[in-house]
Amino acid sequence: MDIAAEMRAMAQAARAASRRLAAAEGSARRQALLGLADLLGARAQALFAANARDVDAARARGLDQARLDRLAITEGVLGSMIQGCREVAAMSDPVGEIESMKKRPNGMLVGRMRVPLGVVAMIFESRPNALVDAAALCIKSGNAAILRGGSEAFHSLSALAATIHDALEAAGLPRECVQTPPTADRQAVTELLKLDEYIDVVIPRGGEGLIRAVVEQAKMPVLKHYKGVCHTFVDETADLARAVDIVLNAKAQRPGTCNALECLLVHRAVAGTFLPLVAERLGAAGVRFKCCPEALPLLAARCTTAEAAQDDDWGREFLSLTLAVKVVADLDEALEHIARFGSNHTEAILTESHKNAMRFTREADASMVAVNASTRLNDGGELGLGAEIGISTTKLHAYGPMGILELMSAKFVALGQGQIRQ
Amino acid sequence: MDIAAEMRAMAQAARAASRRLAAAEGSARRQALLGLADLLGARAQALFAANARDVDAARARGLDQARLDRLAITEGVLGSMIQGCREVAAMSDPVGEIESMKKRPNGMLVGRMRVPLGVVAMIFESRPNALVDAAALCIKSGNAAILRGGSEAFHSLSALAATIHDALEAAGLPRECVQTPPTADRQAVTELLKLDEYIDVVIPRGGEGLIRAVVEQAKMPVLKHYKGVCHTFVDETADLARAVDIVLNAKAQRPGTCNALECLLVHRAVAGTFLPLVAERLGAAGVRFKCCPEALPLLAARCTTAEAAQDDDWGREFLSLTLAVKVVADLDEALEHIARFGSNHTEAILTESHKNAMRFTREADASMVAVNASTRLNDGGELGLGAEIGISTTKLHAYGPMGILELMSAKFVALGQGQIRQ
Asked: Is residue B209 located within the same domain as residue B337?
């Protein structure tokens, strides 16, 4: 196979399909998503069988259990894919929507009409159901998609892609609206990243290595989702009983995610009261602590999993039940620590001081800043966007969870009655 | 001078200044702009003298009159700089603004707070007053700026930059909020474009060559302002008397601009009536026509400046009093022509058909789509954004004129009372 030629043909077909998808009625896009939900249900056994081939091969190659779990399409995973398609289908059609039209002094009405970006490429390492989630968001927003998943999920992704194609065609839309490279060869990615003539944006989802490689190679803009080094600052006025609930949730509810808590900052005035609570509650949940010298004795007195932090534990994304803990003098020191070690993902303050809450929301530089809430809430669903295609940690185009609207742009529409430039 | 080290130091200083500028009160940013307006007025003679050095040197080097005109800071140019600063100062402070906060089912309030992008670099070839316009927009939006103009304006830009520095310091803000490289050496640009660690976005303003060079070299995102190949389609139901006024304005009011009309598309049903009007009115204004075979006799019968178009006249940005003219069968052919030859800048339809107006606004792919209005109205001031820093012709981050809000991002703010992830 000439991979360069194949990828160019794929990108050209995506560009052509994107025009038809954007010009289609919203009812066709909606029908494609409802049809996809139905087909996924009807073909459950075939999808499980294709997935079993991937899982068996991965197990034979010795993939660890965590990765096998991610690879598996269970009844529950399939059910959430189907539900996701139905939820996205039910949203109002965003293509061609105009938020408001204002009248200029010359009488011309000026508004901004939402338009698709065009062709979106996503390179992902995560669960195979990311294919269906991303396809649903792209179809709804009128974008053609080229979706490239991990090679270990090749059969699962092929079976899901075939299902998406059938749903598109049943709704009168081109199957090229959603394409997956027909090869597990990595050269396919390299070639796609050259085709800025046809692909408008690329979204890498996965480890830092993948993201850096895509940024390095891509000729088109990249929406980056770097690591999540999330902090929570417990201020001296915090409600400490509530604070320990929030911190426990942020750290332990699902520690492997990018919005999980990695570093707890505690105001010196309450460290002596609060850290023993943390040692008990989080210690009981299996959390290990990497502590600054001041925090260490307070934690070590109540649990067996506290040890001194090393320099590189600050700013580290543990993605596990490990938590860095530091005592700080005040809000200033907390904000300085976050400015130095944060990753622009999620930062939280727990406080009863309105002044400190307002200052923190303004000065902490992150895609979500929370007051008296868990960092785990930085998620498209929790923030009201519906499904998300990733969380952008840079400020260009989108900052934070990316839903349907973040996959779109807006053009100016000017409705006149003969207006000219004076 | 070690230009690489100088530029790195400049970018680092910009990053530090951007934090102070963003954290400052809106009143300080406002005061800097009002102070700048006053200082520009007070130093008029010194600014004219610095500009005269550039103009004299450029004339001695044989620069053409059009470029000399662009280089000159006249009383009128200075007056509009001063007025621009006052207008931007008068706008409400966008930094930290939250458009709306919605309540989630769990009771948490979620909104989006406007935040600066950080450090904006602009590489420009245009008039020296672009320095003041860009500085004003960046200061207002809380962004530090590195502004690099053409070497022929070196003394003018240095004098303007010194004035900006004095205004910043008088308002208690760091002078490093706005910096200009202290050398005319082109290596300065090359070095700046490597510093994605400190510079968040680069905006090239100038000819296509400049823009392509910046896109090629820049490691940070580029907001591109490519050429403006703008079309106007005169539909069969157009009010032809009004249409000729609009077309005349679009082509001739200021033909050297990116939103000037470059290609007129005329529905066959009205070509015989409309093109003679065009020949008379635009011909009298000095317009030359490059015509398709069908349009040529209709124009040539009424003026002496009509000739057959060459293949490369379609999709060409003339930037002069030359207009390509093509007769088309219908709206479909007009939209096809625009899809093939347009540059995503500005497209207009002149029609009395509501159906065709709506279809055109939806299907023409451009940063502004106009109905019954001049393409020249695609401008930040005309569309209600206030001043603009450029017109983006790509869909990522901003599409169309970029004002203050387009120099900003928005982070999620979540105000809770103990919310956790379920």
From this structure: no
